[in-house]
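To fix ideas, we now present one chain and its tokenised fold:
***
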Amino acid sequence: MSLPAFLLGAIMVLVTLLDAFEVVLLPRPVRRRVRLNRYFFKCTWDVWTRCARLWPAGRRREDFLGVYGPLSMVMLFGLWAASLIIGFGLMQWALHGLVSGRATGIEALVGDIIISGDAFFTLGYGDNVPGHWAARLLVILEAGTGFAFIALTIGYLPVLYQHFTRRDLQLIEFSARAGSPPTAASLLLWHVHGGPEELERWLRDWEIWASDLIESNAVYPMLAFYRSQHEGHSWLGSLAVVMDVCTLLIAGADDARRQQATATFTALRRVLDEASESLRVAPLREVSARGLDLASLELLTPTIRRILPGWHDDSLASSAIWQLRGTYEPRLEGLAAYLLLELPDWIDPEAPTERFGRDVIVRQLTQGRQD
């Protein structure tokens, strides 16, 4: 039993250290499917979402889901620490059997795991000193591992929250333009007076945001579980609205006006691909229209033409819109279903015909002040 126990402990330690290295230190995505943290997030998120579905969609469910992101990282660090302590404890227990030539009991195993925890957190009680040089060397190795593990944990969390903060800051600016709930109609309405140049500059900012999010989702896929700290905001919902606007511009605008929209659309679609690949979420085969039909498109046309007078609303443009939607809607709705995030409509279904005048802007601002 001693040699298999030693090998089992060594495997636990090596697998845990490799997993922690890939998550904390490796600055590139890991495509290997067999990973400790991947199974951890899959199992815990499945349990968490099942519990969340006990509440109807609303604030209580969102509050419950918002806890998972930070709590999952604490649980992951705890899992790593427990795995290392048990692994080193098994190795210590096996060394006693290998050195003495006789097997030791369960009490000795429990005692060695406790001593392993003492060494891992560098408590230094000193009431149990290993007699063999190999066991002493193992204690030194574990103490160094524990010290490095705590240091890396302390240094990792600020980096993770920096990426989260950069993602969330963009959403605050977005909500002021796209409304709450956000829609492509409200976003276009905001840019009526600024003209196409202002809209292109705004889309350029979102291309930069998408580039940063591509890196974040590749290296820190757990950020997808972090809910926005502001109620009614969602990184996936905001991404959907911007892609909807880009779709309209690409389908009907002139070549000179569709370049920035194409670049932003391509970057945002890569965000979806990266997030889906990192979380292993398959695209949905059947997607909803999200409130877009020919009647809704006719309502959007006057607003778009106030920004881009040369925008086309012919059959070719309509066909291009549906084709472009087919390139991102399946992944978008697949991620939304997996993360339990609501996707916004193109036009507010409660007042689709009242979203295109100055009075609506005043009403929105007044409503936001009253709230």
